[in-house]
Amino acid sequence: MGFKFIHAADIHLDSPLRGLSAYENAPAEQLRNASRDALKELVGKAIEDKVAFMVIAGDLYDGDWRDYNTGIFFAGQMGRLAKAGIRAYVLHGNHDSESEMTKKLVLPDNVVTFSSRTPQVHKIEDLKVEIHGQSFPNRAVEDNLAAGYRPKVGDYYNIGVLHTALEGYAAHPNYAPCTVEELHAKGYDYWALGHVHQFQQWDGPSTIVFPGNLQGRHVRETGRKGAVSVTVDDSGHSKVERLFLDVLRWEVLKLDISQCLSMEEVARKVGQGLTALLDDAYVPRAVRVVLEGKTYMHGWLFGNASALRAQVLAQAAAIGADQLWIEKVRLATALVESDLPSGAANEALAELRGIFSEAWEDPEFLQELQEQLRPFLNKVSDELKEDVPLLDLARGSQFADIVKEVAPGMLAQLSATEA
Questions:
Q1: Containing domain of residue 385, as a range?
Q2: Full-model pTM
């Protein structure tokens, strides 16, 4: 008997979208509700497609709720599924582990939550499906949970639900580690994974899938986001289809401006790039604009950053104030060789460049920089630290990277002055 189910993960309900707070025209309400709106889209798609059940593979929440409204909203969405006769199987990961959640609500009867104490198996007898899983008891689970999952039941379609870093994802904490080979060896038909925020699929003895997170939350989570729909035929074969359900999409727009000779030309180049982003789908975009290439305007652009940002904001507003928001404008340009100053000025700049290159390898200088910045960093709000990369680097004691980040701009402005 064939059936269809939806596999989602890393919803991070009510997690704030970071990076747009400095943009005065940013739609506060839309940003605040993005994760909720994406969950509404997910539930709506499940009802529209008449799926048999839904699996949520961890990090439904983003940590403990500030109040009960987050849980009330989720209960309401599960109520929509209940009225459509759709069951939901929820596993908790590192962000919504038992130790992270102090507030709890009784959810509708169609919601089944995996225990954190031991691996569980939930049967759906009418579909001959067995769903295996174990929630995280605490935030940092370093044991291989999958190793303790029960053996496959031969006459059933077996699904393993697991929140894991798997292998090779250095950008994510190495929780519940295991390998693709270990999952295949378990013999399950499908592995519904969570934790890694990019889509990934492995085929073979098992179909193994990370659906990615439901809604991008910042500029490091770019591109289309959503869940997957899995269709199982009468012989037990799985067909995976991606569902794009995000309500706001993050992009990094890289533009080569080496041929631009004026701010007007740069602005037009930016406008063309922003317009192209909106061609494929009507999904609002939050964009980081990165200007690259060797250009005679290098020093001037560094010295007029506010004017450049205003030009980019104006282009976004003209194209669609309700569709485009600029997260940041970043300069990654370089001087044209012939644009370098000559004589004594060039020698001075070369000497300064040498000082910078030594500075980021000088432990005494970096220690002094840390001591000087510490009183300031202690007074900076967490929100500002997220929005300003240099502060984020300082918070991580990456002072060598701060020097590397600041040096090009200073040299560029000096070069423009002396040229």
A1: 249-418
A2: 0.80
